[in-house]
Write a structure and sequence with these properties.
Structural class: mainly beta
Number of helices: 1
Protein name: Glycolipid-binding domain-containing protein
Largest sheet: 15 strands, mixed
Strand order of the largest sheet: 10-9-8-7-6-3-2-1-17-16-15-14-13-12-11
Organism: Streptomyces dioscori
Number of strands: 17
Radius of gyration: 17 Å
């Protein structure tokens, strides 16, 4: 069960946004990822280190085909509960808890700022290096209020390579992800269920090796 910490930053100006402490694991019915987010640590009066404060959470569960069977997000008092149902369906609740809005889109899955969504999309598509790029429609829940937005991406698996480590070979996959509305491309590097690098994401600490999907 990998446990670790990601730092999240603005991919354009590198402004720190949050730290995400996570654990995840495959199981007989799929894969689950749970994390807690905090604001970036800072410096208080007289140079005293100031820890981050709670900023939200992610709880994502996939079935054995990579489909999101349960998603719960919290950020800035907002909450989203969602799942793959007639496409994808969600309920978004405001900080007061008085108002909830439902949404449904003919899409494949969800995405957002959490590294969990990159692993989930790769798991859903199950690409091979010799396959052509695959188009996928996703609903993104954007920070800071988890506003839903439908977008289309193209994913291609560029390389899959094994690297020797002290704990045995580590398989690293490099994906090319293209935003189909702008044509912007970026690389995502995964190993099992851990994001090694991606725009706005840095793996800062990993207590155990990534899980190997079968």
């Amino acid at each position: 069960m990998p446990r670790g910490r990601y730092s999240l930053h603005d991919p354009h100006d590198h402004t720190p946004l949050a730290e995400e402490r996570f654990h995840c694991a495959p199981g007989p019915s799929g894969w689950r990822y749970v994390s807690q987010l905090t604001t970036p640590p800072g410096t208080g009066p007289k140079g005293v280190a100031r820890p981050g404060t709670p900023a939200g959470s992610v709880d994502l569960a996939l079935d054995d085909r990579g489909r999101p069977i349960r998603l719960e997000l919290h950020a800035s008092g907002w909450q989203v509960r969602a799942a793959a149902l007639d496409g994808v369906t969600w309920v978004r609740t405001d900080p007061t808890g008085d108002h909830a809005t439902e949404g449904n889109v003919r899409a494949h899955a969800f995405t957002g700022s959490s590294p969990a969504f990159l692993v989930a999309t790769a798991r859903l598509l199950r690409l091979t290096p010799d396959a052509s790029a695959t188009r996928v429609r996703l609903v993104a829940f954007t920070d800071p209020v988890l506003a839903p937005r439908t977008l289309d991406q193209s994913w291609a698996l560029i390389t899959r390579e094994a690297h020797a480590t002290d704990n045995g070979p580590l398989t690293v996959e490099e994906y090319q992800v293209t935003a189909l509305d702008t044509g912007e491309q970026h690389a995502v590097h995964l190993s099992g269920d851990v994001v090694l690098s991606a725009p706005g994401i840095e793996l800062e600490d990993l207590e155990s090796p990534p899980s190997v999907f079968v």
